[in-house]
Amino acid sequence: MRIDGLTKTYGLMGNPVEHTLSPVIHNTLAEITQKNLVYLPFQVEKKDLQNAVRGAFSLGIQGLNVTVPHKENIMPYLYETDELARRIGAVNTLVRTAEGYKGYNTDMPGLYRAMLSDDMIVDGRKVIILGAGGVARAVAFMLYDKAEKIIILNRTLQKAEAIAAEVNDYAGKSIAGAVPLTSYTTLMNEKYLVIQTTNVGMYPHEEDALITDKNFYKNIQIGYDLIYNPKETMFMKLVREAGGQAYCGLKMLLYQGIIAFELWNGCKISKEQADMVYERLKECL
Ligand code: ATR
Questions:
Q1: Where are the alpha helices (DSSP H) in the chain?
Q2: Using CA atoms, how far apart are residues 167 and 169, in angstroms rounded to an integer?
Q3: Å from CA of 32 to ligand 1 middle
């Protein structure tokens, strides 16, 4: 990499940022597409967020990713927010405009493109979402016009019910429902795509899974864990052992980055280029 007077700066705002893989994604994409840019991690405290956004703009930073804990709080400091990001209620990508940064959410389009890249058909499927946090909410909104049915399975039923109600209201039809985690046995008579959005099973708790009953997994055709560390979670193992296909969240991470890179550079990353970055990501885990 050669840095000169024309090098453009991009980066990630979050806290912590030490373990981020985003610099690997973007600096590899820059290398592959021969763009003169560099991507750096910036640790930003909550109290400094507004100053950080202003400072980044004044310094000419061309684009930023935003991660935990700033995805929701950053919205008031942006010039504009894209409709999808507003609906999801979280921003993970800032694109520079003449007046200020415009906020986007590339997490959900990233998940969808990751699924398509693995030839996964989401349309018309019955989907179970495990968990009812911010990510589960975004996944439910991504699926409302694709899935045949969405079931949100969560320890705290009210949270699942709130998301289902919001999605149904937006969709104008009854597409989503809520089930308490303890009643998972009621879901065993159909075949499902299951998207695991909780942090149960994440490093260093690799031995954990939200549901350990092997019978639950017999009806999972595809299990998608949004966790990527470890690469093979206990949830994925249980899905595979029961005969289903299992995927981790590394491709979602990859494609949310690719979509941000495309927004920033007005280019299109091919499947072959995406695969090259994916190989490098796997080496870094
Ligand atoms: P995110 O924004 O990443 O989705 P979150 O809002 O903290 O994170 O949501 C985490 C989800 O994982 C929640 O649905 C949580 O269940 P509750 O709504 O009952 O709190 C779920 N979760 C986390 N740890 C869990 C555990 N040990 N058992 C069951 N559910 C768990």
A1: 22-33, 49-58, 83-88, 107-117, 134-143, 157-171, 214-217, 234-241, 250-265, 271-284
A2: 5
A3: 38
Q: What is the pTM of this model?
A: 0.94
Directed axis angle between helix 134-143 and helix 107-117, to 10°? 60
State the residue for tokens 């995927």. Answer: 247
Q: pLDDT tens per residue, the chain (285 residues)?
A: 789 999 999 999 999 999 999 999 999 999 999 999 999 999 999 999 999 999 999 999 999 999 999 999 999 999 999 999 999 999 999 999 999 999 999 999 999 999 999 999 899 999 999 999 989 999 999 999 999 999 999 999 999 999 999 999 999 999 999 999 999 999 988 999 999 999 999 999 999 999 999 999 999 999 999 999 999 999 999 999 999 999 999 999 999 999 999 999 999 999 999 999 999 999 998
Residue 180: beta bridge partners? Answer: 154
DSSP letter for each residue of 141-160: HHHTTT-SEEEEEESSHHHH
Instruction: For residue 71, indicate whether it is catalytic.
Output: yes
- Most informative mutation of 199, 233, 235 for ligand 1 (most atoms within 8 A of CB): 199
Q: What is the Cα 132 distance to its own chain's centre?
A: 14
Residue 134 Cβ < 6 Å to ligand 1:
yes
